[in-house]
Each structure stands twice: as structure tokens, then as C-alpha cells.
Amino acid sequence: MALNSKIILHIMGLLLLCNGGFMLIAALVSGIYADGATLGIAIASITTLFIGISAMYFTRGHKKEVKRKEGYLIVTFGWIVMSLSGMLPYIFSNAIPDITNAFFETMSGYTTTGASILDDIESLPEGILLWRSLTHWIGGMGIIVLAIAILPLLGIGGMQLFAAEAPGPNTDKLHPRITDTAKRLWFIYLGYTAAETLLLKLAGMTFFDAINHSLATLSTGGFSTKNLSLAYWNDQPLIQYIVILFMFLAGSNFVLSYFAFKGKVQKIIKDEEFKFYSAFIVGFTILAALVVYFQANVPVTEYHPMPLGAGESSFRHSLFQVIAVITTTGFVTADFTGWTPFLTVFFFGLMFMGGSAGSTAGGIKVMRHLLIIKNGLLEFKRTLHINAVIPVRYNNKTVKEHIVYNIIGFFVLYMLLFIIGALVLGALGLDFVSAIGGAASSLGNVGPAFGSLNPLSNFNGLPDLGKWWCCFLMLAGRLELFTVLILLTPYFWKRT
Questions:
Q1: How far apart are CA 118 and CA 371, in angstroms?
Q2: pLDDT at 304
Q3: How far does Cα 107 stand from its chain's mean position?
Q4: Annotated binding residue at 395?
Q5: To the nearest 5 percent, what fractions of the chain are helix, strand and coil?
Q6: Rounded (10°) angle between helices 310-326 and 272-291
Q7: Predicted local distance difference test score (pLDDT) of residue 437
Q8: How far apart are CA 165 and CA 295, in angstroms?
Q9: What is the pTM assigned to this prediction?
Q10: What is the mean pLDDT of each run of 10 residues along the chain (496 residues)?
Q11: Is 52 part of any known ligand binding site?
Q12: Cα 253 to Cα 357: distance, rounded to the nearest angstrom
């Protein structure tokens, strides 16, 4: 069966319309601040809107049906098209004139990785800073999920798109109709963003800083308006605790947030993934805080002198960095790679955890780890009782065998791509620590890495080929591997 190329191009046009609309918001803010970037952002917006309208106009006679193959192509190429158009404000405003750097910054934004090539963030125009944060916010919940809330207006069903884009293996739905699910997710996402903006403003941030950091927090992105990231507010603990709270919420399943608003607290309490997600954060924070307090004691003097005692400081910095890495948000309050050798290895391991399924976080996801561990432990029983049928159970329900195989396959592919990713970066001249750190960070959409890519540095020193390779890793990690890698297989392109 031939691919329905017209529907693919039509939806690309729709995505470009969304992108161009958000650019207009950035252009408006740029004009209000008179930062000198207004014309460049406006031209980028007009260009994007024109291409989007043209694509939709010339494909208006398409067959209104999206099959599975078209779904995978739309999601993957949608992200690429969004990134190609999303880099135009950087280029036209001359904020990032180099195409490779502009594409890297944009892909890092949409994939909510948060890795940057910028050496002086604070020198950027306000409109560009807002656009940078908006790329996070758009990519966080997924521009594709936004699109399936709009597609019914065009007479198009969106289930295939949601199957390809939805983060993690969780299939919980809030409503039988997929478009209503998308709308509810976006309302929660928007509500959290507004709430965090208000709280950060009340805690002492400027409104501009508050909205930018809220956009980056709820998307688990990590782009900041300050060169020091959240370390800029090390002398204002309340600001950091507010960000901690919303990083935790962003890294948890948004379906559980919906249940909380409906008063169904028991569903949250009984959810295995949420219990382990919370327990991991508590346990890892206590471990890190004890090591920092008794061995490193760095946060008290790092970046800013701390007015509070070393105990509170050690706890707060440890909690902040544990949540930032697990949820793949990537904000930093300190250079955690310089605390102790033990904690360097510790945080490297956390890069492979990821947040909850159904969250905006990247990484492998807590649910996958749980099911892999459960299946591994059951293998001991199966070895002793060869003929027994012992299924994996999750939330007191039997997990279908094909889902377990899918998760094991995902884990193997993830680790294989990590190894290949590190080998490529090593071949391009990076030292061992920087290569494995860069690969883990890019694939897990974490942001800061290790070695020459540590939280005090950035990815600007990478050779151009290394930046393009990291862009591929970011895209593959953000779209859960299969969506991207399946396009590289010959049988995907065979007619059926």
C-alpha cells in the first residue's frame, strides 16, 4: 500500500502554522522590550506561516486517513521540520548565525534536552530568550499531541499519531476519545505552567524570568535565562524549592495529575510507578546529601555564599540535582560533577533512569525499569518451575507478554545506541568521560553532561559533526527510539 504523502505534507503545514504562531508571540515580546530582534523573529514567523499555509493549500484534497506508517513519518519528520523552521529566529536575528549551532540549539529545545552551544545567554535579546523557552514548551508535551486536538477540525483521526508520540509505554487514557485526552493533558500542562509562573514571581523572580523558567520546567527542558542557570538564585532557596516541586510534577505521569484534580487520590497512592518514582527520589537525595555534607560540602561556597547552614544547603542542592537529572530537566544549582568521584558516577547512573511514563521527561522511564526488574526476578521462579506460567504483574494487572518483550527490546536498543553514540563522539576527539557523558545526556535528553560538557561548560566545543550526531541522539531519545529507528529499516519502506 502506497504512503499517503499528501496527508503527511498537510500535517507538516499544520505544524508549521503552530510554530509560526508561537514565533509571533516571541516577536511581540521582542517588540515590547525593543531588544533589536523583532524584525528577525517576525520575518522567521512570516516565512514559517507562508510555507505552512502553502503546504496545507496544495494538499487540501488529501485522503483524510492516517495509518501507522504515516503516523511514524509525521512524528519524526514533524520534529525535524519544526526544528528546521524553529532555527530561523536565531538565524534571521543573528543571535546564532551558524546553521549547525542554530539547529543544535533548536533541536535541543524541542526535544527538551537543554544542552546549549551559547556562551553568554544573558546577552541574548528577550524575544530570542522567550523563543528558546517556547521551543521547550512546545516539545514538552509534544506538538503532535497538540495537533491531534486540532486534527478533528480537519476531519482527520489522530490515534496513529498519539501511538507514535506518547512518551513511555503507558496506555492509560483520560477519555475514550484521543482528542479529548490531548486537550485534557494540555489544560493540565498549561495550568501548571501558569501556577509556577505566579509562584516564582511572588518568590522574587522577574515576570520574564518566571515565565521562561516555568516553560522550561514543565517541559523538563532546562534552558535558563541566566548563565548560571538556577544557581543564580542560590541565595533565594524558596525559588529553588518551587522549581523542585514543579520538576517533580513534570516528571510524574500527567494522568495521575488528572486523577488528583478529580479527587481520585487512591489511584495515585496505588500506582506502582509513582511510588517507586517518589521513593527513588527520596532515597537518592538522602544518599547524595549525606555524601555532600560529610565529604564534598561544596554548595555552601559554590557560585554564591549561602546564608543558610551547610545542612540545608547540602540537602537542597542534592534534592535539586537528583530531581533535575531523574526528570531530565537539566537545571543546575551547582556543578555536581565536581562534588566527589562517587557522586560523579552516581549522577551518571541517574541519567539512565528517566521520569515516569506519560510525563514530559526523557530517559528510559521508571516503569520500564520496574518491569525489567520484575521480569528478571521472575526468571528465578521460572527456572525452578519450568512448566509454570508466571506472568509479570503491574498495578495488580497481568502485563501482556508482547509488552514485556517490547520493553526488553527498547532497553537493549537504548544501551546499544548509547554505546554507539559514545564511540562516535570518541572518534571525533572527545575524551572518554566527555564521550560517554555526551552520549548519555543527549540520548536521555538530560542536558548537562560530564568532562568537557559539564554543567559549567556547554556543547559549543563539539565539532560540527559531533553536534549533528548529538541532534540525532536527542531526536531518537525524545521519540522513544522505535519511532525514529524504524524509519532506518528496509522493511518499513516495503509496500504491503
A1: 39
A2: 43
A3: 11
A4: no
A5: 70, 0, 30
A6: 140
A7: 96
A8: 43
A9: 0.91
A10: 81 93 97 96 97 92 77 88 96 96 97 94 96 95 62 52 59 62 84 97 97 96 94 93 97 90 89 94 95 69 46 90 95 90 94 90 91 91 82 86 88 96 97 96 94 91 96 93 89 79
A11: no
A12: 6
Copy the grid coordinates of residue 484: 525514529
Q: Where are the alpha helices (DSSP H) in 111-250?
A: 126-141, 143-150, 159-165, 178-203, 207-218, 237-250
Phi, psi of 394 (to 5 degrees): -140, 125
Q: Report the distance separating Cα 97 and Cα 88, nearest Å.
A: 9
Three-state secondary structure string covering 293-343 = HHHHCCCCCCCCCCCCCHHHHHHHHHHHHHHHHHCCCCCCCCCHHHCCHHH
Non-local CB neighbours of 124 within 8 Å, separated by 6+ positions: 95, 118, 132
Judge whether 100 is annotated as a binding position: no
328 assigned to a ligand binding site? yes
Written as one letter, the residue type at 222 is: G
Cα–Cα distance for residue pair 109/481, rounded to 1 Å: 18
445 is in an annotated binding site: yes
* Residue 123 burial (CB count, 10 A): 9
Question: Is the distance from CB of 7 to CB of 59 less than 8 angstroms?
Answer: yes
